[in-house]
Amino acid sequence: MMRQRPLTLVQDDLVDYEKAMERMAALVEERQDDARPDTLWLLSHPPVFTVGKRTLETHLPDPSAGIPVVPTGRGGQLTYHGPGQLVGYLIVKLRDGEGVVDYIREVELRLVEALGTLGVPAERRDTPPGSELLTGVWTRDTGRKIVSIGMRSSRSVTSHGFALNVDGDLTPWDLAVPCGMPDVEMTSIARELGRASMEETRRVVAEAFEAS
């Protein structure tokens, strides 16, 4: 059973990615200085590909796609953000002895719980021995990836977070190699269930993270 970790909830609709990064950096600095509590910021972005430092050039989209590609300081590789996707940035002070990978595992489990509540059986996946960290959440019945996760920590405070596909256009995922996984198939709540509600998803995810 996960330990309690209540978060302060901040919500926005569509926020430009680079403007969101500026605000997130300010939130992280405030948390490092104990000037604010642990925070979950829920929002969405206009269409953008973001790439971690380990992203291979061959995994990038063709520039003719017309979707901006923005480098980012988080862990992980390439991901796509767009309308209809719920992004959650987690500005959380890690506990003594806790590393960012430990917290990522907690994030996965909380999202598995939220998706189950929404009617999508889901699971996190163990990383095979000798392999790179496998992060995210997959649907249990179809084996498709529904949540991407990329995080980092600085001075024991996490930043970045997760992207849960709710009811947005999935075709941009086909323009690049998501998460460094050429064979992965991305999905959304709407694709799995034939319906989805962003409002309900926000509520259920906030509850799963004890955020209010």
UniProtKB/TrEMBL annotation:
Reaction(s) catalysed (UniProt annotation): octanoyl-[ACP] + L-lysyl-[protein] = N(6)-octanoyl-L-lysyl-[protein] + holo-[ACP] + H(+)
The keyword Secreted belongs to this UniProt entry's keyword annotation: no
Subcellular location: Cytoplasm
Keywords assigned: Acyltransferase, Cytoplasm, Transferase
Claim: Transmembrane helix is one of the keywords in the record: no
PANTHER family per the UniProt record, alphabetical: LIPOYLTRANSFERASE 2, MITOCHONDRIAL-RELATED, OCTANOYLTRANSFERASE
Binding-site residues, substrate: 74-81, 148-150, 161-163
Residues marked Lowers pKa of active site Cys (site): 145
Role noted for this protein: Catalyzes the transfer of endogenously produced octanoic acid from octanoyl-acyl-carrier-protein onto the lipoyl domains of lipoate-dependent enzymes. Lipoyl-ACP can also act as a substrate although octanoyl-ACP is likely to be the physiological substrate.
Record PROSITE patterns: BPL_LPL_CATALYTIC (PS51733), LIPB (PS01313)
SUPFAM superfamilies: Class II aaRS and biotin synthetases
Enzyme type, top EC level: transferase
Active site per the UniProt annotation: 179 (acyl-thioester intermediate)
Coiled coil regions in record: none
Domain BPL/LPL catalytic residue range list: 34-212
Pathway entry: Protein modification; protein lipoylation via endogenous pathway; protein N(6)-(lipoyl)lysine from octanoyl-[acyl-carrier-protein]: step 1/2
InterPro entries listed in its UniProt record: aa-tRNA-synth_II/BPL/LPL (IPR045864), BPL_LPL_catalytic (IPR004143), Octanoyltransferase (IPR000544), Octanoyltransferase_CS (IPR020605)
Full protein name: Octanoyltransferase
The protein's Enzyme Commission number: 2.3.1.181
Other notes: In the reaction, the free carboxyl group of octanoic acid is attached via an amide linkage to the epsilon-amino group of a specific lysine residue of lipoyl domains of lipoate-dependent enzymes.
Membership in a protein family: Belongs to the LipB family.
Organism expressing this protein natively: Microbispora siamensis
Encoding gene (name): lipB_2
Domain of life: Bacteria
